[in-house]
Amino acid sequence: MQYTKLLALATLLTGTLAIPLEKMTRACAYTCGSACYSSSAVSAAQKAGYKLESAGNDDDSYPHEYHDYEGFDFPVSGTYYEFPILSSGEVYDGGSPGADRVIFNGSGELAGVITHTGASGDDFVACDS
């Protein structure tokens, strides 16, 4: 009798927790094309880019100033900088930057996440949030 109740409780808990746990591990704060980025991945890329920019990065690599030719309505004021965010989950440290970028301002505030995926030419489009 005790075993049956325990088994029923375990089944109930497993069934009710399975969906929220899956959503937590697969939660996309931003989706760029088919790439899913968690809020922690976005934050890590933003912080890494801001740290480099604050250190006086002045070469042609990342981060570099983003001119917003597309006219996005960012929630923070610029000057804006772009830094790659990688679908592998790693923080960018050189090489191919991929299609996706975090945009932040000179105060390190997140402006948004954008991608070349689905854009014309060398333009960007906003990632879904």
Automatic annotation (TrEMBL):
It is an enzyme of class 4 (lyase). It catalyses: [RNA] containing guanosine + H2O = an [RNA fragment]-3'-guanosine-3'-phosphate + a 5'-hydroxy-ribonucleotide-3'-[RNA fragment]. Residues 1-18 form the signal peptide. CDD domains: fungal_RNase (cd00606). Keywords: Disulfide bond, Endonuclease, Hydrolase, Lyase, Nuclease, Signal. Its EC number is 4.6.1.24. GO terms for molecular function: hydrolase activity; ribonuclease T1 activity; RNA binding. InterPro entries: N1-like, Ribonuclease/ribotoxin, RNase_U2. Pfam families: Ribonuclease. Belongs to the ribonuclease N1/T1 family. This is ribonuclease T1. It comes from Penicillium angulare.
